Amino acid sequence: MKIYNNINFVEKKFLNSVIAIGNFDGVHLGHQELLKKAYIFSRKLKKFFGIFTFDPLPKDFFNGTDNKILNIDEKVDIIKKFGADFFIKQKFNYNFSKISRDNFVNKILLKKLKAHSIFIGKDFRFGFKRKGNVSFLKKLSQNNNIKIFVINFKKFNNYKISSSKIRSLIQTGKVNLVNKIMGRPWSISGRVIKGKKFGRKIGFPTANIKIFNQIKPSFGVYSVKIIFNKKTYKGIANFGVRPTFGNSRPILEVNFFGKNHNFYNKNIKVLFIDFIRKEKKFKNSTMLVRQIKKDIKVAKISLNKK
Question: What is the DSSP string of 135-204?
Fold first, then answer.
């Protein structure tokens, strides 16, 4: 899959392709349905299949936040599995945000990409102040011979499948439901940094990860799986401020079951499997150790079921 950071760099061979457009934050089951249909259609026509998304997400750009479900590298890795021939992660900045809905269609989709067909979700909005919508896109496409396919995302157990719903569930600790809606475990990737070694002092050494550019989970304890160098490990994680030792900045601490691993300064991926309990302050480290042992038992049962 060829990756472009700007629409201006897309090669001529990829013009007149089938293109899926959207934020695709989380690449949840609804997104996956859209991508699969776009891929199948492209192969029927013997056309290239491309994906057009934005980095940062427009909402994060305007709000000044880092609230992504997936960082851009993880998004690329997941999207590769859906057979795209090229991937545009357009830099979203002040200048790009000023592009009108007419120019987005006429100058970008028609002139620069010469899109043959476009796949979008029904809530897709585009252009300055999000004035462009599905109806507007369909109207302009009729005069330019572009096929527009609007995919209605299905519901999951009465939940509307959406990125905003997933964010809400992550922030309330409902990662088990998040994983079902996403079709895979929600994860955080990051570099292991030096900590204050509180875990090591009480017999439970941890790998500490500071979370950048991603939504943060609810404070609490989780059963997790850890991926490093294509190997998968099981463990338990706590995200929070470590109130028993005096509050600190929020950090993700991961304890590996079995042999102690040294991943300092390495990048690891943490898959959240189940929420075990909320973070709480204990009177002393003895009571904390007692609770951690209970949490580990619960985590092992949870992980053995997955």
Answer: HHHHHHHHTTT-EEEEEPPPEETTEE--HHHHHHHHHTT-HHHHHHHHTS-EEEEEEEE----HHHHTT-
Number of residues assigned to the chain: 306
Report the domain count for the chain. 2
* Structure tokens given for 151: 């995919």
Judgement on whether residues 163 and 114 belong to the same structural domain of the protein? no
Domain region containing 130: 2-153
Q: Is 237 helix (H, G, I), strand (E, B) or coil?
A: strand
pTM, two decimal places: 0.89
> What CATH number does the domain containing 205 carry?
2.40.30.30
For 54-97, how does the pLDDT look when each residue is reduced to its tens digit (9 = 90+)? Answer: 988 898 888 877 788 988 888 888 999 999 999 999 999 999 99
| Residue 35 sits in the same domain as residue 122 | yes
Q: How far apart are CA 228 and CA 263, in angstroms?
A: 9
Per-residue pLDDT reduced to its tens digit, 134-167: 998 888 777 788 899 999 877 777 777 889 889 9
